[in-house]
Each structure stands twice: as structure tokens, then as C-alpha cells.
Specification:
The protein contains eight helices and two strands. By secondary structure, the protein is mainly alpha-helical. It folds into two domains: 91 residues, no CATH class; 59 residues, DnaJ domain (Helix Hairpins, Orthogonal Bundle), CATH 1.10.287.
């Protein structure tokens, strides 16, 4: 048996756990510690998503003294806790939409005498208006191939398709087949839009 063969070098009997941890993890970030930093600990307030790496002994010590609210007075802690109930997102009173509110704070379309009904009827009209469907990448490319905007529908697509076919068809160009690839792209784009229900 050759002890210096390539095959022998790759054979390992169960490796030492500490050596494995050292290979996989960076060094402990505690001053003077050289062990593997196998445990993450949060850096603290204003450093969300950032972590320190410690060994098991030092992460325990760090966690004992860790205080997220260190340096905050009681009022700021209460404000933070209140904001945490809504995930620190803005809120407003029921029936008031801050973005839709007019200059004087009234809802758009609201009148002095019948504000509630007129506002909600305007809201219903807006909500019931059909939204344009979100285009898939191939559909968007098909519109670009035909040289149309994404809002084009029905007769606009058919008219543009007929115009492009007449322009690029070999029979219309005296048998010239140089634009045959472009014609194929136009036909494929039109077929895709037709199957998708745009025309």
C-alpha cells in the first residue's frame, strides 16, 4: 500500500468536529478568541440584518448583556412598541385615505352635504373600471415586433398586421426573400396576440 498515493489522501475517517467548524465558519469576533464563530448574534438597533459571529461561550455572554433598547428613554420605547403592532407601517383612521384626500383633507368627489355617498360612488366607479391586463414577456415582445403600444387592441392590431404583411411579403417585393425572417416574426407575433385574446 502506497501512503503517498492520491487515492489515499482523499480517504478520511470521521473528521474532528472542531476542525470542521473552523473550515466552515469564520473566527469568533470576541477580542482575543481564536475559536470558530459558529453562532450569529444581532449587532443591535439601527443595524438590522447585520450579525456578529461568536463561539458558543461568547455568544452566551453577549446575549446576557444584549439590550435592543439601550440608550432609548421610556417614551421612545413605548412609541416603538406601539409602532411594532402595525409592523412600523403608516396607519390612518377608518374611512380616511391619506393619499386620496384632497388639499383640505376631504376625500375627492365628496360634497359638503352628501360627502359619504358621493365619495363612495366615485370610489365604486373607479374600482369597477376594467384594469388593463399585465402583459407577459412574450406578449410585450409581440407588440414591439408589430411596432404597437401595449394599449393597442382589436382593429389596431389587425390593421397593423395587414400593413406589415403587405410590406414584407415576397410577392409584394417582386420575389425578394430577404425580409422573409421579418415576415415570419410578424406572423408569429400576430398569432400569439390573437390566441391571447388581444384581437
Amino acid at each position: 500500500m502506497k501512503l503517498d498515493s492520491k487515492i489515499f489522501d482523499r480517504i478520511r475517517i470521521k473528521p474532528e468536529q472542531e476542525r470542521l467548524e473552523e473550515d466552515l465558519h469564520q473566527e469568533c469576533q470576541w477580542d482575543g478568541c481564536t475559536r470558530a464563530g459558529t453562532h450569529r448574534a444581532p449587532r443591535g438597533r439601527d443595524h438590522e440584518g447585520e450579525y456578529l459571529n461568536f463561539c458558543i461561550d461568547h455568544v452566551r455572554e453577549y446575549n446576557k448583556s444584549y439590550n435592543y433598547f439601550a440608550g432609548m428613554d421610556d417614551d421612545r420605547v413605548r412609541q416603538w412598541q406601539k409602532a411594532a403592532t402595525t409592523g412600523h407601517r403608516p396607519t390612518w383612521k377608518m374611512g380616511v385615505n391619506a393619499k386620496a384626500a384632497g388639499v383640505n383633507g376631504e376625500a375627492p368627489g365628496a360634497k359638503a352635504n352628501g360627502g359619504y355617498r358621493s365619495y363612495h360612488s366615485a370610489w365604486r366607479r373607479h374600482a369597477q373600471a376594467p384594469r388593463p391586463p399585465k402583459l407577459k414577456p412574450l406578449e410585450a415582445k409581440a407588440f414591439e415586433t408589430l411596432g404597437l403600444g401595449h394599449a393597442a387592441r382589436g382593429n389596431d392590431i389587425k390593421t397593423r398586421y395587414k400593413e406589415l404583411v403587405k410590406r414584407h411579403h415576397p410577392d409584394a417585393n417582386g420575389g425578394d426573400r430577404s425580409s422573409e425572417d421579418r415576415l415570419r416574426q410578424i406572423i408569429q407575433a400576430y398569432t400569439l396576440l390573437k390566441k391571447a385574446g388581444f384581437c
